[in-house]
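<instruction>
Derive structure tokens from the sequence
<data>
Labelled lines for chain and fold:
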Amino acid sequence: QHSTEADAAGRVLHELLQQALRVGKRATPVPGWFQPRIARPAGEPLPPVAPAPTWGTPKLWQRRPVLAGAALGLLGLAAGGAWALSRDGEPAATEPVPNGAAPTPSPSGTAAGGVLWEVPSGTVAAPHRLVVGESGRLVGTDGARVFAVDPPTGGQAWSIPLVADQPELHDWGPAVLVTAGRQVWRIETAAGRKSFAVDAGGTVRHVALATDRAFLDVSAPIGPQLRALNRAGAEVWQQPVRETPLAANTDWLVTRRELNGTVWITLREAATGQQRWSVQYPLPPDPKQGGGNGPGGQPPPPPPPGGDGPPGGGPPDAAWARAEASLGKAEVVVRDINDLRVFGLADGAVRWSKVWERPVVGVELLGDVVVLAADRIYGFHLGNGEQAWNMDLRGARLAAAPDGKLVYAIAADTVAAIDQAGRAPWNAELRGLREGDVQRVVVRHPVGYAVLVPQPFPDRRDVIAFALEPRP
């Protein structure tokens, strides 16, 4: 006969299993590129390898069994701890951090890449739910409010209730820009004070930020608008166009528009909104559609076995279908799904372009090198597009250092610093992470942050801080 405690534990396990089954209806965000990972001891250098063939037909996607992983995780929870696989395949115990509890501080003598702390942020499961402030303070939303947490203590610094639907947060230097429907707020990270609250005149669809400007794509009753606000919330200019802001600095704004199978990339003056140039190209095939020819005229890869991807169909990794841009000193780099193009900043002339026949998850501009993360990490010369090096890290999330000397990459459980020559000054292990766990990397020197994909359990860690340089 089961005891009362056993019955209670069984009910809890049953409920967790039901949650896991509901979560398991979508594919795990594991790109599963074309060859198994090879174990690499922590700290071993990551030298560039001989250039791999750029073109070819991708192999079948690989996918880990969702329900099996969920069941193992639930068994670990029932036993009082969570278990993950270390790089060599042996189980490594990781203890969950209760929501709001202080994480364990890092020991003295932390090496570059060593974990400093990890916490659950308590934020809602959404793409723009969390900002790592300049000081390392976490600012997030749980849907009904915006709040700040001070790691590693885990203490709440401030909280502001919002009567808003699905607020989104965007990093704006010493503040966060919050959008919800047609409402826009700027909240100072340190004090938790609203410095402005304005009505955008329509639903805010997309945002790009420069030091002194916020650029908003607004769907208004009078028609689409591209609007620029200053740090006081006053409108600087507006243009009656439907364009998605991709990247901005104090001088320039890069936007994207698509219509009837054609994409327009436009460069505008940040101060006035005036168009400097606009170029167009065919819309790349969307991995979410799963039809038509793929890049380079090849048939698209079949869906992963055992399921049809996330809700609504599409690839296991949402980053595969992203458009992004970077502004250099004399170039504009645009990644549109897996279409990579470099334009001259002065005239919009195409310097070079490539259609990558592997899923692409991110691009960074590192000095005179374009760093592309796909089945491997590739470096291309900015001037002519020739491949300079590549590195055996797949599905990596990238973030460039502000000084442009290094790019930091996290691929599965490996974090590495990479220079322009494709050398890795250091690499380390982030224990317990799997491919697809990291949503993005944030650099706040001398600390880096891995923001993880939201978990179904709110007390699971979703922010990991690691050292960017050795600590005594």
